[in-house]
Design brief:
289 residues, mainly alpha, two-stranded antiparallel ribbon, 74% helix
Protein backbone atom coordinates (compact mmCIF):
# COMPACT_ATOMS: atom_id res chain seq x y z
CA UNK A 1 0.00 0.00 0.00
CA UNK A 2 1.16 3.60 -0.61
CA UNK A 3 2.77 5.39 2.37
CA UNK A 4 0.44 7.66 4.39
CA UNK A 5 0.54 11.37 3.44
CA UNK A 6 2.82 13.58 5.48
CA UNK A 7 1.10 16.01 7.85
CA UNK A 8 0.78 19.56 6.61
CA UNK A 9 2.77 20.79 9.61
CA UNK A 10 4.47 19.53 12.69
CA UNK A 11 3.06 21.09 15.90
CA UNK A 12 6.42 21.06 17.64
CA UNK A 13 8.17 22.74 14.73
CA UNK A 14 5.51 25.44 14.55
CA UNK A 15 5.90 26.16 18.24
CA UNK A 16 9.67 26.55 17.89
CA UNK A 17 9.27 28.90 14.92
CA UNK A 18 6.96 31.17 16.89
CA UNK A 19 9.27 31.34 19.87
CA UNK A 20 12.59 31.71 18.02
CA UNK A 21 13.93 35.23 18.10
CA UNK A 22 10.98 36.52 20.18
CA UNK A 23 11.84 36.02 23.88
CA UNK A 24 10.29 39.42 24.69
CA UNK A 25 6.80 38.10 23.92
CA UNK A 26 6.71 36.58 27.39
CA UNK A 27 7.82 39.77 29.17
CA UNK A 28 5.32 41.87 31.09
CA UNK A 29 4.93 45.63 30.69
CA UNK A 30 6.85 46.18 33.93
CA UNK A 31 9.70 43.92 32.77
CA UNK A 32 9.86 45.75 29.44
CA UNK A 33 10.00 49.06 31.31
CA UNK A 34 12.90 47.80 33.44
CA UNK A 35 14.62 46.59 30.28
CA UNK A 36 14.20 50.08 28.83
CA UNK A 37 15.69 51.57 31.97
CA UNK A 38 18.81 49.42 31.62
CA UNK A 39 19.17 50.35 27.95
CA UNK A 40 18.76 54.01 28.81
CA UNK A 41 21.53 53.84 31.40
CA UNK A 42 23.71 52.32 28.67
CA UNK A 43 22.84 55.33 26.48
CA UNK A 44 21.07 53.11 23.96
CA UNK A 45 18.23 55.57 23.61
CA UNK A 46 16.71 54.13 20.43
CA UNK A 47 16.54 50.62 21.90
CA UNK A 48 15.24 51.97 25.21
CA UNK A 49 12.44 53.85 23.43
CA UNK A 50 11.53 50.63 21.60
CA UNK A 51 11.28 48.78 24.92
CA UNK A 52 9.03 51.46 26.39
CA UNK A 53 6.89 51.32 23.25
CA UNK A 54 6.47 47.56 23.70
CA UNK A 55 5.52 48.13 27.33
CA UNK A 56 2.86 50.60 26.21
CA UNK A 57 1.54 48.03 23.72
CA UNK A 58 1.28 45.50 26.56
CA UNK A 59 -0.86 47.99 28.45
CA UNK A 60 -3.01 48.49 25.38
CA UNK A 61 -3.54 44.74 25.07
CA UNK A 62 -4.56 44.65 28.71
CA UNK A 63 -7.10 47.37 28.03
CA UNK A 64 -8.67 45.28 25.27
CA UNK A 65 -8.84 42.25 27.50
CA UNK A 66 -10.29 44.10 30.49
CA UNK A 67 -11.65 47.61 29.74
CA UNK A 68 -12.75 48.17 33.33
CA UNK A 69 -9.30 47.40 34.75
CA UNK A 70 -7.66 49.55 32.12
CA UNK A 71 -10.00 52.46 32.91
CA UNK A 72 -8.61 52.46 36.44
CA UNK A 73 -4.97 51.87 35.51
CA UNK A 74 -5.15 54.40 32.69
CA UNK A 75 -5.54 57.07 35.34
CA UNK A 76 -2.86 55.70 37.60
CA UNK A 77 0.28 57.88 37.76
CA UNK A 78 2.44 54.78 37.35
CA UNK A 79 1.13 54.36 33.80
CA UNK A 80 2.30 57.88 32.84
CA UNK A 81 5.88 56.85 33.62
CA UNK A 82 5.98 54.73 30.45
CA UNK A 83 5.39 57.85 28.38
CA UNK A 84 7.74 60.14 30.31
CA UNK A 85 10.50 57.53 30.07
CA UNK A 86 10.07 57.28 26.32
CA UNK A 87 9.82 61.07 26.09
CA UNK A 88 13.22 61.40 27.77
CA UNK A 89 14.69 59.02 25.18
CA UNK A 90 13.28 61.24 22.43
CA UNK A 91 14.74 64.31 24.15
CA UNK A 92 18.17 62.66 24.19
CA UNK A 93 17.79 61.88 20.47
CA UNK A 94 16.55 65.46 19.84
CA UNK A 95 13.23 64.18 18.47
CA UNK A 96 11.30 66.91 20.24
CA UNK A 97 7.97 66.53 18.41
CA UNK A 98 7.68 62.92 19.57
CA UNK A 99 8.76 63.88 23.09
CA UNK A 100 6.10 66.60 23.24
CA UNK A 101 3.40 64.12 22.19
CA UNK A 102 4.46 61.65 24.90
CA UNK A 103 4.59 64.35 27.58
CA UNK A 104 1.10 65.55 26.72
CA UNK A 105 -0.18 61.97 26.83
CA UNK A 106 1.49 61.50 30.21
CA UNK A 107 -0.22 64.65 31.53
CA UNK A 108 -3.57 63.28 30.40
CA UNK A 109 -2.85 60.27 32.61
CA UNK A 110 -1.32 62.23 35.49
CA UNK A 111 -1.68 66.02 35.53
CA UNK A 112 0.62 66.20 38.59
CA UNK A 113 3.58 64.57 36.85
CA UNK A 114 6.67 66.66 37.52
CA UNK A 115 8.70 64.87 34.86
CA UNK A 116 6.05 65.36 32.18
CA UNK A 117 5.97 69.12 32.79
CA UNK A 118 9.76 69.25 33.04
CA UNK A 119 10.45 67.32 29.83
CA UNK A 120 7.70 69.22 28.01
CA UNK A 121 9.27 72.50 29.11
CA UNK A 122 12.69 71.33 27.92
CA UNK A 123 11.27 70.42 24.50
CA UNK A 124 9.48 73.75 24.14
CA UNK A 125 12.69 75.50 25.15
CA UNK A 126 14.58 73.72 22.37
CA UNK A 127 11.78 74.54 19.94
CA UNK A 128 12.04 78.22 20.97
CA UNK A 129 8.50 78.35 22.36
CA UNK A 130 9.71 80.28 25.38
CA UNK A 131 6.39 81.31 26.94
CA UNK A 132 5.10 77.73 26.92
CA UNK A 133 8.46 76.45 28.17
CA UNK A 134 8.48 78.85 31.12
CA UNK A 135 4.90 77.90 32.00
CA UNK A 136 5.64 74.17 32.11
CA UNK A 137 8.99 74.55 33.85
CA UNK A 138 7.44 76.79 36.49
CA UNK A 139 4.66 74.22 36.95
CA UNK A 140 7.27 71.45 37.32
CA UNK A 141 9.16 73.56 39.87
CA UNK A 142 6.01 74.23 41.93
CA UNK A 143 4.91 70.58 41.82
CA UNK A 144 8.36 69.40 42.87
CA UNK A 145 8.19 71.69 45.92
CA UNK A 146 4.66 70.52 46.79
CA UNK A 147 5.59 66.85 46.44
CA UNK A 148 8.97 67.40 48.14
CA UNK A 149 10.85 65.89 45.22
CA UNK A 150 14.52 66.73 44.86
CA UNK A 151 15.61 67.46 41.29
CA UNK A 152 18.62 69.45 42.41
CA UNK A 153 19.18 72.53 40.27
CA UNK A 154 17.92 70.88 37.06
CA UNK A 155 14.48 72.53 36.95
CA UNK A 156 15.57 75.98 38.29
CA UNK A 157 18.50 75.99 35.88
CA UNK A 158 16.26 75.19 32.90
CA UNK A 159 13.81 77.85 34.05
CA UNK A 160 16.55 80.48 34.27
CA UNK A 161 17.77 79.54 30.80
CA UNK A 162 14.23 79.76 29.40
CA UNK A 163 13.69 83.20 30.90
CA UNK A 164 17.05 84.41 29.67
CA UNK A 165 16.40 83.10 26.15
CA UNK A 166 12.96 84.70 26.11
CA UNK A 167 14.54 87.99 27.20
CA UNK A 168 17.19 87.66 24.50
CA UNK A 169 14.54 86.85 21.91
CA UNK A 170 12.51 89.93 22.86
CA UNK A 171 15.67 92.05 22.81
CA UNK A 172 16.68 90.69 19.39
CA UNK A 173 13.26 91.60 17.99
CA UNK A 174 13.47 95.06 19.53
CA UNK A 175 16.97 95.57 18.12
CA UNK A 176 15.79 94.44 14.69
CA UNK A 177 12.89 96.90 14.84
CA UNK A 178 15.29 99.69 15.80
CA UNK A 179 17.62 98.76 12.94
CA UNK A 180 14.72 98.71 10.50
CA UNK A 181 13.60 102.13 11.75
CA UNK A 182 17.15 103.47 11.45
CA UNK A 183 17.42 102.21 7.86
CA UNK A 184 14.03 103.67 6.98
CA UNK A 185 14.87 107.10 8.41
CA UNK A 186 18.28 107.04 6.72
CA UNK A 187 16.64 106.42 3.35
CA UNK A 188 14.18 109.25 3.98
CA UNK A 189 16.95 111.72 4.83
CA UNK A 190 19.05 110.72 1.81
CA UNK A 191 16.04 110.84 -0.47
CA UNK A 192 15.11 114.29 0.79
CA UNK A 193 18.70 115.50 0.29
CA UNK A 194 18.74 114.25 -3.29
CA UNK A 195 15.39 115.90 -3.98
CA UNK A 196 16.55 119.27 -2.65
CA UNK A 197 19.84 119.08 -4.57
CA UNK A 198 18.01 118.35 -7.84
CA UNK A 199 15.58 121.17 -7.14
CA UNK A 200 18.50 123.53 -6.52
CA UNK A 201 20.14 122.49 -9.82
CA UNK A 202 16.93 123.10 -11.78
CA UNK A 203 16.62 126.52 -10.21
CA UNK A 204 20.23 127.20 -11.25
CA UNK A 205 19.48 126.41 -14.89
CA UNK A 206 16.14 128.25 -14.89
CA UNK A 207 17.48 131.44 -13.25
CA UNK A 208 20.94 131.20 -14.82
CA UNK A 209 22.73 131.30 -11.46
CA UNK A 210 26.51 131.36 -11.37
CA UNK A 211 28.37 128.13 -10.53
CA UNK A 212 29.86 129.47 -7.33
CA UNK A 213 26.46 130.26 -5.90
CA UNK A 214 24.97 126.91 -6.86
CA UNK A 215 27.87 125.07 -5.20
CA UNK A 216 27.28 127.05 -2.01
CA UNK A 217 23.56 126.22 -2.05
CA UNK A 218 24.27 122.52 -2.58
CA UNK A 219 26.86 122.56 0.20
CA UNK A 220 24.27 124.07 2.59
CA UNK A 221 21.75 121.36 1.66
CA UNK A 222 24.30 118.57 2.21
CA UNK A 223 25.45 120.05 5.52
CA UNK A 224 21.88 120.29 6.76
CA UNK A 225 21.08 116.67 5.98
CA UNK A 226 24.44 115.46 7.30
CA UNK A 227 23.49 117.13 10.56
CA UNK A 228 20.17 115.27 10.56
CA UNK A 229 22.04 112.00 10.02
CA UNK A 230 24.49 112.66 12.86
CA UNK A 231 21.71 113.63 15.28
CA UNK A 232 19.76 110.51 14.41
CA UNK A 233 22.83 108.29 14.86
CA UNK A 234 23.52 109.87 18.25
CA UNK A 235 19.94 109.24 19.33
CA UNK A 236 20.08 105.57 18.36
CA UNK A 237 23.45 105.22 20.09
CA UNK A 238 21.94 106.54 23.33
CA UNK A 239 19.11 104.01 23.06
CA UNK A 240 21.65 101.24 22.53
CA UNK A 241 23.61 102.30 25.64
CA UNK A 242 20.47 102.34 27.78
CA UNK A 243 19.55 98.86 26.54
CA UNK A 244 22.95 97.47 27.53
CA UNK A 245 22.53 98.84 31.06
CA UNK A 246 19.22 96.93 31.41
CA UNK A 247 20.90 93.52 31.21
CA UNK A 248 20.83 91.76 34.60
CA UNK A 249 23.66 89.29 35.34
CA UNK A 250 22.58 85.80 36.45
CA UNK A 251 24.29 86.16 39.82
CA UNK A 252 21.95 89.05 40.71
CA UNK A 253 18.82 86.94 40.11
CA UNK A 254 17.27 84.88 42.89
CA UNK A 255 17.42 81.09 42.61
CA UNK A 256 13.82 80.77 43.80
CA UNK A 257 11.95 83.71 42.27
CA UNK A 258 14.35 84.04 39.28
CA UNK A 259 13.89 87.81 39.55
CA UNK A 260 16.29 90.60 40.55
CA UNK A 261 17.17 90.19 44.24
CA UNK A 262 16.10 93.23 46.24
CA UNK A 263 17.58 92.14 49.58
CA UNK A 264 20.18 89.39 49.01
CA UNK A 265 21.16 87.18 51.95
CA UNK A 266 24.01 84.67 52.01
CA UNK A 267 23.10 81.36 53.67
CA UNK A 268 25.59 79.19 55.65
CA UNK A 269 25.93 76.98 52.56
CA UNK A 270 27.27 79.98 50.64
CA UNK A 271 24.25 80.31 48.32
CA UNK A 272 22.61 83.75 48.04
CA UNK A 273 18.82 84.10 48.17
CA UNK A 274 16.43 87.03 48.34
CA UNK A 275 15.24 87.60 51.91
CA UNK A 276 11.54 87.53 51.00
CA UNK A 277 11.98 84.12 49.32
CA UNK A 278 13.64 82.69 52.44
CA UNK A 279 10.89 84.04 54.67
CA UNK A 280 8.20 82.68 52.39
CA UNK A 281 9.86 79.26 52.34
CA UNK A 282 10.11 79.19 56.14
CA UNK A 283 6.43 80.12 56.47
CA UNK A 284 5.44 77.26 54.16
CA UNK A 285 7.57 74.77 56.11
CA UNK A 286 6.11 76.03 59.40
CA UNK A 287 2.59 75.54 58.06
CA UNK A 288 3.34 71.96 56.98
CA UNK A 289 4.81 71.10 60.40
Amino acid sequence: PPPPPKPAFTPGRRKNNNMSGSPEKSLTAQELKEQGNRLFLSRKYQEAAASYSKAIVRKELKRRECPCCWWRSNRNPSVAVYYTNRALCYVKMQQFDKAVADCKHALELDSQSVKAHFFLGQCQLEMENYDEAIGNLQRAYNLAKEQRLNFGDDIPSALRIAKKKRWNSIEDKRIQQENDLHDYLTKLILSEKEREVEQCKRKHYEENMDDCRIRMEIAKIEAKHDKYMNEMDDLFSQVDEKRKKRDIPDYLCGKISFELMREPCITPSGITYDRKDIEEHLQVQKGKN
